Amino acid sequence: MTSSYGQYGLRGRAAAVTGATRGIGRAVARALADAGARVCVSARDPDEVRRTAEELDGVGLAGSVADPGHPEALTGLCLRTFGRLDVLVNNAATNRPYGPLMAADPDVWREAFTVNVEAPLRLVQCAWHGWMREHGGAVVNVCTEGAGHVGPGVGAYGTSKAALLHLTQQLAGELGPGVRVNSVSPGLVRTEMARFVWEPGEEEVAAGLPLGRIGEPRDVARAVLWLCSDEAEWITGADLLVDGGTRVRAAGTASRYHLPGA
Prior knowledge:
The chain is α/β, with parallel strands linked by helices. The protein is built from nine helices and seven strands; from the N terminus they run E-H-E-H-E-H-E-H-E-H-E-H-H-H-E-H. It has a single domain, classed as 3-Layer(aba) Sandwich (Rossmann fold). It has a seven-stranded parallel sheet, sandwiched between helices. Helix 3 runs parallel beside helix 4 and helix 4 runs parallel beside helix 5. The N and C termini lie far apart (44 Å).
């Protein structure tokens, strides 16, 4: 990350990012800070929150977004410290329960929706009532490329993220024109949460993508930053796919074959 992000004009604005101490969330928080925003970070581990907040010259609040009081506490901290809340990035997520849905614990299934869907709604509500209704703002929800199709073991995660995608579009329609609400949908990114997917066969997975590599957190952070900035001022209700070409890879496979008459 470099200070070149100053071109996005976020100086003087304040942002809150959940799940912000590692992976995509940390990269997003770093990008927003490099663009001039004052950043309030949230995650479960108190030590990681403190370190991240110090590195970004911001503030932080440790806790789980599944706690109904956490969204209000987080937005309150941002408003007390910075006097405003212009940007909200809902990044915290869980991929549990992993496995076939017929074996899923209903309580763990419910937690997936609490973290991945309910918490983002609560945070948007708090940001809206605390600042954005009167002053405007931008919300970005981190969804997933997998929300558009099914896959083994990820039924709870994919279903909850599909719900978050719909929530994004519903909120965009309700909160305009002052508040823009968009989402980014990453493909396979090099994070701890996705380690079980990419680590066993990274080279093979990368070779199957049109862009030849799996994603890095900074790839997603750049997309989030753009959507948060005035560069995207006429965009709301959109989902920006950041997947290295995952959804179009079948065409690349076909093109390797010799076609008659070619």
